[in-house]
Design brief:
Layout (H helix, E strand, L loop, with lengths): L9 E3 L10 H10 L11 H17 L6 E4 L6 H11 L4 E5 L6 H9 L6 E5 L6 H13 L1 E6 L6 E6 L4 E6 L7 H4 L4 E4 L5 H15 L5 H9 L5 H17 L7 H10 L9 H13 L7 H8 L3 H14 L3 E4 L2 E4 L1 H7 L2
Parallel strand pairs: 1-3, 2-7, 2-8, 3-4, 4-7
Antiparallel strand pairs: 5-6, 9-10
The structure holds adenine.
The site of adenine (ADE) has 13 residues, from helix 7 and helix 9.
Length: about 350
Amino acid sequence: MTKDDSNKEIIFSDNTPETNFEPSEKLEFNFLRPKSFSDYIGQNKIIESLSIAVEASRKRDESLDHVLFYGPPGLGKTTLSYIISNQIESNFIHTSGPALEKPADAVGLLSNLSSKDVLFIDEIHRIPKTVEEYLYSAMEDFRVDFITGSGAFAKTINLRLESFTLVGSTTRPGLLSSPLRDRFGLSYHLDYYDENDLKDIILRSSRLLDLKIDENSSIEIAKRSRGTPRIANRLLRRVRDYVEVKNIKKINTKVINDSLEIEGVDNLGLDRLDREYLRIIAANYEGGPVGIDAISASLNEDQATLSDVVEPFLLKIGFIIRTSQGRKITKLAYKHLGI
Ligand code: ADE
């Protein structure tokens, strides 16, 4: 099935139509996300490589090679997957590793795909091993072999699939098995955005949200966005709420500071959890080294949240280092905390 941009079909693996989104999610998914490569800001090398691959597959009238996106959350892995399906004018079928509990879930999904469809699997590192094995032949030869019945009635069914494109997304590429990783012909590491790209993303979103904001104020929000477009858009919406409620006519640095302080976001974009993470290491473990399990227990916070969300940015800005004995905080972090 082929759809044009304005009438894009997004199908969830449980067949939830897009119209079942909460209004706020709908706004985020439909409204602020870029829909084409030309709308996309940043990650230039990835965009260039993907545009060539998409264009080549279109010229040859073939399905696009399977694509893997990896990197910290909020950098555009889902958005890019959606853009791919838009550019090749195919359906976008959205599921996630944990949703594919049993082989039958995967076989059901795969057998319903049409030619060139994009099957997007978020958190692909969380697919159970028993399900993952079905993906190998599906990705390589567009077929799945499965057994029905048991004992004397067991029968192998060889099911041919349409030539689809699997787009996998993960924050933990190290957890993918090599047979799965090797089956992606295109593999991209998304990195943090620089301030200028974030500023442009904020200006674009402001235009779409009908919010007046100048370049300087956009830079101030960009500085607090931790290199992450999702955070930039979230902070922009908080500033927008604040100026609307307080009836403020012009956004400036003070307005941004005041509105984001309420959200617990400081001038570097660190939030309460980031600061608490640093404080715990400083106060309870003399600055480290300390293992993530101990930090997680002290903070009463999930380890995956710390290692996928909190630590990558603190590492990037040089506030922590990882040693073989564990995490240590740096002088920069002490200075920021005022200790
Ligand atoms: N909104 C979120 N991410 C974006 C990006 N990379 N380009 C444009 N708009 C965005």
